[in-house]
Amino acid sequence: MNFSVFSQNTTNNYKYIIVPEKFDFLKKTDEYQTSSLMKFLLKKKGFEVFLSNEKFPAELAANKCLALFTDIKDASSMFSTKSTIQIKDCSGKLIFSSKQGKSKEKAYKKAYHESIRNAYNTMSDFSNTYLSSNIEEIKKPKNIIDKPVGKTIIAPQIIKVKELEQKGKVIKKESKLLYAQPNANGFQLVNMTPKVVFIILKTNVKDVFVIKDKNGILFKNNSYWLAQYYENNQLVEKEYQIKF
After folding, report:
1. Domains of the chain (ranges plus CATH)?
2. DSSP character at residue 132
3. b/e map of 214-229 (b: 16 or more CB within 10 Å)?
4. How many CB atoms lie within 10 A of CB 27?
5. Distance (Å, rounded) from C-alpha 126 to C-alpha 240?
6. Quick one: DSSP state of residue 199?
7. Element (H, E) at 118
8. What DSSP letter does each residue of 16-63 carry, written as one string?
9. How far is CA 112 from the centre of its chain?
């Protein structure tokens, strides 16, 4: 059976999928056109698909958590090529996995293309009809204080923070210095007291962290770091200088 963590409604919240320019089991960028093939196939599922080395739209460049991420697990042997397609969120959590696709072709390119296509053909229950109305609701200040559903992370580039701040919908916008102390899964951020302000968890996206025990993220924005999360049903945005 296919493995699916999130419901179809959850995948509909994602407009983008990012495909790596080079999969870990290969030596060269887009070797055997595996990345290009994966991009082509996922477009059929209704997503806007980008290779990781392509230029992203502004909202995606600012917040990679707006996208899902593709990986291919290779379990090839001497006699057959075996590929499994995995879909993950920005924190690396597995959302969907195809069944294993196989090929007995001897030529590498033919073998990988056949095994990837066979894996893709098992993804009948993975598709997307992007719910643009969700984003429109986020843009409206009156909905910013709605209780978030599950672990949905509000896209920082979409929310016009200055406008909301004037309307009293955003609280505690400030800039402070924190020091990062590494731990097993990321860092704890402490102030001068010293007091732990946040515990942040690593993701597979550069300069994007999940804030532990909060419905939000920490990401780099130019020369400072921006934390966005919900507190008492209000969106909180805080700017920090962080010394790693």
Report:
1. 3-120 (3.40.50), 139-243 (no CATH)
2. H
3. bbbbbbeeeeebbbbb
4. 6
5. 38
6. E
7. helix 108-120
8. EEEE-SS-TT-SSTTGGGHHHHHHHHHHTTT-EEEETTSPPPHHHHH-
9. 25
Torsion over CA: 90, 92, 93, 99 (sign): positive
Give the CA diameter of the chain. Answer: 65
Which 3 state secondary structure label does DSSP give 186? strand
Residue given tokens 């910013």 in the structure block? 144
Q: Classify residue 13 by its DSSP letter.
A: T
Question: pTM of the full predicted structure?
Answer: 0.53
pLDDT in tens, 57-115: 888 888 888 889 999 999 999 899 999 999 998 888 888 899 999 999 999 999 999 99
Provide the token pair at 2.
Answer: 């296919």
